[in-house]
Amino acid sequence: MQSYTIGQAARLLGVSPDTARRWADADRVVTHRDHVGRRLINGRDPAAFSMEVGQGARTEDGEPYTSARNAFPGIVTAVRLGDVSAQVGIQAGPHRLVRLLTREAGEELGPEVGMRATARVKSTSVHIDRA
Questions:
Q1: Within 13 Å and on the Cβ side, how many CA atoms surround 53?
Q2: Most exposed of 11, 14, 32, 68 (fewest Cβ within 10 Å)?
Q3: What are the tens digits of pLDDT across the range 66-125?
């Protein structure tokens, strides 16, 4: 499973690194240390945490994040494979995006909860690029 530094997790969750550190210090997200002593967060933890608090992520001054572009880098929060279709959920800062695709395309993409991904939105279509 992929792990993220505090700064990487903060960007994925749409908050400042200081906010992510405060959450880690308060045990709202669990961290572990790598071989050089950096605090890391397991990829599944920010994915679950983003579903809890990320839907209303705000800047430090309380303003909602906005995006003028069509690319939304974030973290995969859900993967559901059905008999014919698949569903992939991504939390990108305050934006929650869901992509429906065929099961075959979902298996080929190979998304996993906790991995980085970018949702690309064009008109009413959402495309996902593995990071």
A1: 15
A2: 68
A3: 444 577 889 999 999 999 999 999 999 888 999 999 999 999 999 999 999 988 887 667
Q: Which of 112, 61, 16 minimizes the C-alpha distance to 24?
A: 16
One domain for residues 97 and 50:
no
Instruction: Report in angstroms the alpha-carbon separations of 93 from 21, 71, 79, 110.
Output: 16, 12, 18, 22
Backbone angles phi and psi of 128, in degrees to 5 = -120, 130
- Reading the block at residue 77, the tokens are 């929060």
Judge whether 6 and 19 are in contact, CB under 8 Å.
Answer: no
- Residue 70 sits at the vertex; the CA angle it makes with 67 and 75, to the nearest 5 degrees, is 80
Count of structural domains, the chain: 2
Helix locations, the chain, DSSP H? 6-13, 17-25, 44-53, 103-109
